[in-house]
């Protein structure tokens, strides 16, 4: 039986996927409310295909509890925040979970860490916890790192189809854990050592962050001399060896906006391009705020209460607001503007910021300048409703005439 520890954005779909493919799974989370919701037959976030997967896993007998189980395999999937000052990974949740596993696990158990960690974290923080509990790593307890790679918005598909990496101290244990993942994963599963697995995950997200920063920088260069960045990127990407991502209002989520900082924190004098890229992405919401001011001036909009931000989530068609560019922009505007801007997002039904609307038409009636912060399908399908508004389109999705861009 596998005990999945942490039933958040990654742990839950992973547990459901394994259970629905014939593996006996118990999911554990210290959040009683979350466990109660799952036990009441409801999922805790929106994701394509998640509800169907949940039903299949329930049918297959998955259980949810706040208790750690005595079993032979654990998958730890808890958050890894970063310390905003040192930029280093904060492994407190991973360490806490492994400590709790140590209290119940029998000798011979395998502990798989799925959470993203910086290279060396397992050596530095996880191994000592196991040794302090009197266990010998490689004999009493086997340690594995199997970083997840799925993208919110397409998690269920990617769980089934993405290639995976498994880092283990021994080939034998790596192959054993590979079998669990192979129960559902149709992609290739590479077995390597733990530090390589740690590094590959962080490097993948860093590659994306640097590429987005490059697009954001191009966007600023093009704005400076009135060139069309989207047309330029489109043409450049027709070259067989060029693949530039898209500029946007900033980089959010718990991955691309966080993981690259681990490398800056651990290698401050070496990770120069990464450091600059992260600063560029982090300053993009301020850049949007400046564009809003320019456009207000150009259109004689003097009252910022007539400005509305469309979208609160960190990207399209998800209900996750972690590190969202809109939240970063709102935090920044508090320093510059007396009154908060208006905000609306179809995916956020609870009030989480001031001046938040819950209906697209009411929101649009109340604003003159609409800033498209997130390219949810809803706005793509309702472009006509923006007719007559001043529009700042941060994603180049609007086809109406006279639209402003970043
Ligand atoms: N963004 C841009 N321009 C782009 C693409 C994205 O500005 O061209 C922005 C998005 O709007 C968003 C942020 O970047 O604010 C991050 O979104 P994302 O869709 O690029 O990535 P995440 O954070 O949802 O998921 C990433 C994925 N990593 C890679 O593609 C290398 C996913 O595969 C990982 O599993 C996930 O991080 C994770 O958990 O680490």
Give a verbal description of the structure.
This protein is an alpha/beta fold and 406 residues long. 41% of the residues lie in helices and 13% in strands. The protein has 15 helices and 14 strands. The chain has helices spanning 11-20, 32-39, 50-59, 92-104, 121-132, 155-161, 171-182, 194-224, 229-236, 259-266, 272-282, 284-298, 325-336, 360-365, 377-381; strands at residues 2-5, 25-28, 63-65, 73-76, 109-113, 141-145, 164-168, 189-192, 307-310, 342-344, 356-357, 369-372, 390-393, 404-405. The strands form two sheets. The chain has an eight-stranded mixed β-sheet, sandwiched between helices. Strands 11-10-9-12-13-14 form a six-stranded parallel β-sheet. β1 (2-5), α1 (11-20) and β2 (25-28) form a beta-alpha-beta unit. The longest helix is centred in the middle third of the chain and has 31 residues, at 194-224.
């Amino acid at each position: 039986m596998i005990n999945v520890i942490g039933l958040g954005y990654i742990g839950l779909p992973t547990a459901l996927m394994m259970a629905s493919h014939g593996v006996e799974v118990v999911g554990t989370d210290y959040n009683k409310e979350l466990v109660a919701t799952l036990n009441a037959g409801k999922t805790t976030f929106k994701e394509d295909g998640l509800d169907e997967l949940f039903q299949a896993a329930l049918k297959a007998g998955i259980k949810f509890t706040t208790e750690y189980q005595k079993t032979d395999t654990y998958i730890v999937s808890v958050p890894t925040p970063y310390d905003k000052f040192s930029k280093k990974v904060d492994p407190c949740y991973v360490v806490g979970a492994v400590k709790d596993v140590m209290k119940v696990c029998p000798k011979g158990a395998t502990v798989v860490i799925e959470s993203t960690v910086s290279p060396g974290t397992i050596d530095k923080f996880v191994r000592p916890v196991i040794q302090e509990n009197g266990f010998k790593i490689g004999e009493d307890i086997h340690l594995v790192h199997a970083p997840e790679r799925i993208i919110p918005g397409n998690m269920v598909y990617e769980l089934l189809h993405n290639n995976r990496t498994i880092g283990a101290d021994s080939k034998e244990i790596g192959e054993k854990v590979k079998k669990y993942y192979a129960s559902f994963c149709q992609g290739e599963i590479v077995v390597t050592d733990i530090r390589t697995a740690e590094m590959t995950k962080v490097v993948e997200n860093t590659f994306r962050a640097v590429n987005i920063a490059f697009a954001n920088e191009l966007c600023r260069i093009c704005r400076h001399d009135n060139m069309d960045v989207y047309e330029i990127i489109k043409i450049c990407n027709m070259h067989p060896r060029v693949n530039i991502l898209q500029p946007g209002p900033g980089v959010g989520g718990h991955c691309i906006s966080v993981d690259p900082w681990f490398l800056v924190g651990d290698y401050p004098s070496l990770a120069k391009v990464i450091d600059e890229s992260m600063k560029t992405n982090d300053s993009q919401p301020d850049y949007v705020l400046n564009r809003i001011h320019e456009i207000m001036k150009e259109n004689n909009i003097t009252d910022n209460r007539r400005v509305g931000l469309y979208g609160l989530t960190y990207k399209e068609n998800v209900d996750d607001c972690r590190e969202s560019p809109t939240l970063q922009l709102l935090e920044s505007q508090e320093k510059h503007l007396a009154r908060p801007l208006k905000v609306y997002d179809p995916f956020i039904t609870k009030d989480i910021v001031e001046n938040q609307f819950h209906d697209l038409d009411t929101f649009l009636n109340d604003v003159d300048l609409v800033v498209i912060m997130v390219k949810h399908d809803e706005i793509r399908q309702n472009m006509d409703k923006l007719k007559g508004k001043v529009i700042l389109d941060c994603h180049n999705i609007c086809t109406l005439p006279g639209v402003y861009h970043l």
